Amino acid sequence: MNARDRRREIGHLLQEKPIAVDDLAAAFSVSPSTIRRDLEAMTKSGDIVRTYGGARTSGGPERSLRERESIAVEQKFAIGRLASAFVEAGQIAVLDAGTTVGALAKNLMFREGITVVTNGLTTTTVLEHSSGIDLIVSGGRLRHISSGFIGPFAERVMSEITADVAFLSADGVSATLGLCEETPEQASLKRVMVERARDLYVLADSSKLGVESSHWWTLLDRPWSLVTDDGATDAQLAPFRASGLVEIHIAGSNRP
User: Fold this and answer.
1) Taking the C-alpha atoms of 224, 225, 228 and 234 in order, what is their torsion angle to the nearest 10 degrees?
2) Which of 34, 102, 109, 199 is least enclosed by beta carbons within 10 angstroms?
């Protein structure tokens, strides 16, 4: 069993209960040091939380944006850099709130002739001094934990534009259900973004693929593109490939 498959199976086991390193080593017939390396990688990606002598899944209260900024940093930067190639001069681009879309904003800082419409404070802060970018901020009710504006005011701004491209974030991404969010207001705003953009990109690191962590969803029933990192396994990507709607772009990899 390769490392990716082993880590996926470790994640499945940890969903049932916390497990000690020695027990995981015995279960997979590898050394404890190999398991520790697996757990370190899974901790960095945000899949698990280390405990004394073992690990547990990372479920529980929603993380703040500041907490999420330290998770999967390299993967998010790679995704943001790749996604920036899909923005052209003269276009209107919608940038959702979130740290991965914030990484895209950092890759747009020195671009010229782009209009960015955002509900995210991260993108607003990153681009506030970028003179080549016409920056429009939606306003609305600030959701402090995610540093994003939501509600009817934000939806009204988004509903009055016709964007060339939209870049969306999510807590989880499903090939059949769409984008998973913590609140119905977030899901509702994303539906407006989906409706008002010609081209649609979802930016999600591999730890979010197939995750169904909440009850609120934005259905993606039209062609769209997934931009993820090279930690995504073939098993994770298979449902998206089979859907017939999704074009997959993998940052930091030559994989199709």
Assistant:
1) 90
2) 109
